[in-house]
UniProtKB/TrEMBL annotation, chain A:
One CC-aspect GO term: ATP-binding cassette (ABC) transporter complex, substrate-binding subunit-containing
Keyword Isomerase: no
Keyword Glycoprotein among record annotations: no
Organism: Pyxidicoccus fallax
InterPro entries: AAA+_ATPase (IPR003593), ABC_transporter-like_ATP-bd (IPR003439), ABC_transporter-like_CS (IPR017871), ABC_transpr_MalK/UgpC-like (IPR047641), CysA_C (IPR041193), Mo/tungstate-bd_C_term_dom (IPR008995), P-loop_NTPase (IPR027417)
Keywords recorded for this protein, A-Z: ATP-binding, Nucleotide-binding, Transport
Domain ABC transporter residue range list: 4-238
Pfam families: ABC_tran, CysA_C_terminal
Protein name: ABC transporter ATP-binding protein
Automatic annotation (TrEMBL), chain B:
Cellular component per GO, a single term: plasma membrane
Alphabetical UniProt keywords: Cell inner membrane, Cell membrane, Membrane, Transmembrane, Transmembrane helix, Transport
Protein localization: Cell inner membrane; Cell membrane
Domain ABC transmembrane type-1: 52-256, 344-546
Single GO BP term: transmembrane transport
Major localization class: membrane
Any Pfam family: BPD_transp_1
The protein's name in its UniProt record: Iron ABC transporter permease
Family: Belongs to the binding-protein-dependent transport system permease family.
Originating organism: Pyxidicoccus fallax
Transmembrane annotation, as ranges: 12-31, 51-78, 90-109, 129-155, 176-201, 240-261, 288-310, 348-369, 381-402, 414-433, 483-504, 524-547
Length: 344, 555
């Protein structure tokens, strides 16, 4: 059964469309990420799920119940959700346990039950020792764990996470990411996770919905998304691929600007005509009888190096073994694996 | 669409009383004043050029004095390592916390031509506080904090690296200060000066005290309006309305000037984080600087207050200065008199009521401002403008609008009469309208610091919109609302200008009692009451300091 369904949802702010006809099913117990660059509508989508925004049209169902749609506008407090905000949103005037107890107090549970459930929720996030502390005494990672406990304590139908790791430093981010995965395994809560970090999405999700300009470009399991991107945007955003517009003629790809052409490896041949070339940096190599291009920069990555060539109105990135070359040198570049998308 | 609907309903509920009790009365006054009612309107001004000229001249004098004193003082207090600069800052900001009328009383005790203490020490006729120069002097001093605070804010924002760059280029420390920091802070200092001008132009108590009994009498717009209202009749009120209109027109001019100065200054100040600028070391000049600032502070702030205290303890003003002439009789007489107690009770009640209204309507303004985004600026402007309108004008507008009973008929059957004339309700309205800005500004600034996600988190946790507001942002707004309440309470409890025009016969408040004792009865009794005012202000400021410190700790 679907825990959550969005059907053809539209939302605009004034004249600016933010979400344009979005449909998505999230199954019971599943973790689905909404992944995309800033301004793609992912946070707005999450806020519409929470009831903090109302769609202009379309239907949202949670657990089979319509919460937003024609004539239906269920306020957030009646949707039975939990939400974790990027800014933590831990109330500074309440102690840790008072923060976590809040959703239970609103449900008028007996005091003893509130106390025991708060204790349990704090144990989930390993904060039992800090129960009586005030938020200003906690670190960012601890605050976000308080927010997590508060969102989970009442047993929400769905947990919504709005870039919960973005305000944390790298090490903490890793730690909290693992914690979310553990909690999910233990509680089996359905989760919708908004992020702009493809690493986070790939590591955590059952499925990822890649969003661009208010629409979902592809929904798939992480590996499939990475291996078989459905659109150039997904390839570029998730796999970090080079995306070059141009056309195919005589077994070679010519950039739209006409400043370079690359012979295509066997198996990638498409019909002649306008198209978009998608090629991962590691699927290019320097040397051989490649196309000669001027190097603009070389970035040392440790295990490898990234070489950048200004081509087709963008920077073509090539990752390969570190070599002693200088910016300005002209080097041969060869594609050995690529994918073509018809222009559109 | 229910939420949108509720938003507009809220706006209506907030706007209706403001419209009815402030905007429409002032608009009607403006119409009357400009002659739209078929009256002679502004042509009355021809016969009042003296008052208009005095207002402009005195205000300009006060503004110049505040700028000349305030510029070096703000540099010394906020940019150098002057000893005791914290204490001096507190003392130098007292003049705007205590009503100007009381400073006028202090200077009257010191420098009235014959009986003033200074004249008795230095020989009769050394000083004369009566007349335009004396009024400008007292107004300038009580406006000094406006320039100082503007200077403090600007100096805090000037990037210390700019001054250091001047040093590296070869400028001496003093030269670097005068050629980089000072010019950058000047626009702010000047906008503070414009505020002093405006404050002096709308001041009533000081020109009344030091102008009406001068020979020849010095009349300004506010005191003329008062005289004309006392004169009464259609002619008197029409002329008063014309003068009030002229006075009101000064406000937008001054606000435009402030805005222009402010925006030209903002460009050049560093907008970055508050930098802890290193205080400028005074070196060997530290001692002399301390002495100069100490003497200036003593003469300008402590001396007038001391003079009032002395007057309150003297058997009679003008008596010989000797220990045996001192008595507590006035204190027990004034403080225990039923008239004083009644006025105190009334004032405290009115001030508490007005303070409550200011907080409530101010908070509503802040919430609406946030809810309406673009329209929000309009809401803020509506909440803040009465603060800039001279008290005399606000009072006159209410007096004219509610001089007759207003009869409302609902559903053809139910009629009710709004009879506000000659009731304390009119005072409550005047206080709440005038000081609404304190509530609106304080809550808007506090609300802007609070992330909307705090309330959203409460909503998702299961709280309805009202419950979420009460549980999440409201407790965090409490310090700001406390500050707004105390400020409004102090302002209302010590208010004189609007009170003397609006107070109904037989129900005096503290401000009118002080005014009457000083103008008609005996200066000693007035001095006792003035001391009580000062004590009230000091207590209030201490509460504010405490709230401020606790607010910082909570963060």
């Amino acid at each position: 059964m679907a825990a959550l369904t969005l059907t053809d949802v539209f939302k605009s702010y004034g004249a600016t469309p933010v979400v344009r006809g979005l449909s998505l099913d999230v199954r019971e117990g599943e973790l689905v990420s909404l992944l995309g660059p800033s301004g793609c509508g992912k946070t707005t989508t999450l806020r519409m799920l929470a009831g903090l925004e109302h769609p202009d049209s379309g239907v949202i169902r949670i657990g089979g119940e319509t919460v937003a749609g024609p004539g239906v506008r269920m306020p957030p407090e009646r949707r039975g959700l939990g939400m974790v905000f990027q800014s933590y949103a831990v109330w500074p005037h309440r102690s840790v346990e008072q923060n976590v107890a809040y959703p239970l107090t609103l449900r008028r549970l007996p005091k003893a039950e509130v106390a025991s459930r708060v204790k349990e929720a704090l144990r989930w996030v390993r904060l039992e020792a800090l129960a009586t502390r005030r938020p200003h005494e906690l670190s960012g990672g601890q605050l976000q764990r308080v927010a997590l406990a508060r969102a989970l304590v009442a047993g929400p139908r769905v947990l919504l996470l709005d870039e919960p790791l973005s305000n944390l430093d790298a090490a903490l981010r890793e730690e909290l990411r693992a914690e979310i995965a553990t909690l999910r395994a233990r509680l089996g809560t359905t989760m919708v996770f908004v992020t702009h970090d493809q690493g986070e999405a790939l590591a955590l999700s059952d499925r990822i919905a890649v969003m661009n300009r208010g629409v979902i470009e592809q929904v798939d399991a992480p590996e499939r998304l990475y291996r078989e991107p459905a659109t150039p945007f997904v390839a570029g955003f998730v796999g970090g691929a080079n995306v070059l517009p141009g056309r195919v003629r005589d077994g070679a790809f010519h950039t739209a600007q006409g400043d370079a052409s690359f012979p295509l490896p066997p198996g990638t041949l498409g019909p002649d005509g306008p198209c978009t070339l998608v090629v991962r940096p590691e699927d290019l190599e320097l040397g051989g009888e490649g196309t000669l291009l001027p190097l603009s920069a070389r970035l040392f990555l440790g295990h490898a190096a990234e070489y950048r060539f200004p081509v087709g109105g963008t920077l073509l990135r090539v990752v390969g073994p570190p070599r002693e070359v200088r910016a300005g040198e002209v080097l041969p570049v060869r594609i050995w694996k690529a994918k073509l998308f018809p222009a559109g | 669409m229910r939420a949108a609907w509720a938003r507009w309903l809220g706006l209506g509920a907030w706007l209706a009383p403001l419209l009815f009790f402030a905007i429409v009365p002032v608009a009607v006054l403006l119409l009357r004043g400009t002659g739209a009612h078929g009256e002679a309107g502004l042509s009355w001004l021809a016969s009042e050029t003296g008052a208009l000229g005095n207002t402009l001249g005195i205000s300009a004098g006060a503004a110049v004095l505040a700028l000349v004193l305030g510029t070096p003082l703000s540099l010394l207090l906020f940019r150098t390592d002057l000893p005791l600069r914290g204490a001096f800052t507190v003392l130098f900001t007292l003049p705007s916390a205590i009503p100007a009328f009381i400073w006028g009383m202090g200077w009257l005790s010191l420098a009235s031509p014959r009986a003033g203490y200074l004249n008795r020490l230095l020989g009769e006729g050394a000083f004369d506080i009566y007349g335009p120069a004396g009024i400008a002097f007292v107004e300038g001093l009580s406006g000094l904090p406006l320039v100082l605070l503007a200077g403090a804010a600007a100096l805090r924002r000037v990037d210390p690296a700019l001054e250091e760059a001047a040093r590296v280029c070869g400028a001496s420390p003093v030269r670097a200060l005068l050629t980089t920091t000072l010019p950058l802070a000047l626009p702010s200092l000047l906008s503070g000066t414009v505020m002093v001008f405006l404050m002096a132009a709308s001041s009533f108590g000081v020109p009344y005290l030091l102008g009406i009994s001068a020979s020849p009498p010095t009349r300004v717009l506010t005191t003329r309006i008062y005289e004309l209202v006392l004169l009464g009749g259609d002619v008197g009120l029409a002329r008063a309305a014309a003068l009030a209109t002229a006075l009101l027109l000064l406000t937008p001019l001054a606000l435009v000037a402030t805005w222009a100065l402010g925006s030209s200054g903002r460009v050049r100040l560093s907008a970055g984080k508050g930098m802890a600028s290193r205080p400028f070391p005074l070196g060997r000049a530290r001692g002399p600087a301390l002495a100069v600032v100490g003497v200036v502070c003593g003469v300008l702030v402590l001396l007038p207050l001391g003079a009032i205290l002395l007057t309150s303890l003297q058997r009679s003003f003008g008596a010989e200065l000797a220990w045996r002439e001192l008595t507590l009789a006035h204190w027990s007489g004034v403080l225990l008199e039923p008239r004083t107690l009644r006025a105190t009770g009334r004032s405290l009640l009115l001030a508490a009521g007005a303070g409550g209204l200011v907080c409530l309507l101010g908070l509503a303004a802040a919430v609406l401002q946030r809810g309406f985004r673009r329209l929000g600026a309009g809401v803020e402007a509506l909440a803040v403008w009465p603060y800039a309108v001279p008290g005399t004008v606000v009072a006159l507008a209410l007096l004219l609008a509610f001089s007759r009973d207003l009869r409302f008929i609902l559903l053809e059957r139910v009629a009710f009469v709004l009879a506000l004339a000659h009731t304390p309700w009119l005072l409550l309205i005047a206080y709440a309208a005038k000081y609404l800005a304190l509530g609106a500004r304080n809550s808007a600034e506090a609300l802007a610091q609070i992330d909307p996600s705090l309330a959203e988190a409460a909503r998702v946790s299961g709280a309805g919109p009202v419950r979420a507001f009460v549980d999440a942002p409201l407790p965090l707004l409490r310090p700001a609302l406390t500050v707004a309440f105390v400020l409004a309470f102090l302002a209302c409890a010590t208010e004189i200008t609007m009170s003397v025009l609006l107070v109904p016969a037989g129900s005096e408040v503290l401000g009118t009692l002080l005014f009457e004792l000083q103008s008609y009865a005996d200066p000693a009794a007035a001095a006792v009451l003035a001391c009580a005012f000062v004590a009230l202000v000091v207590v209030g400021q201490a509460v504010l300091a405490l709230v401020g410190r606790r607010g910082v700790e909570a963060r």
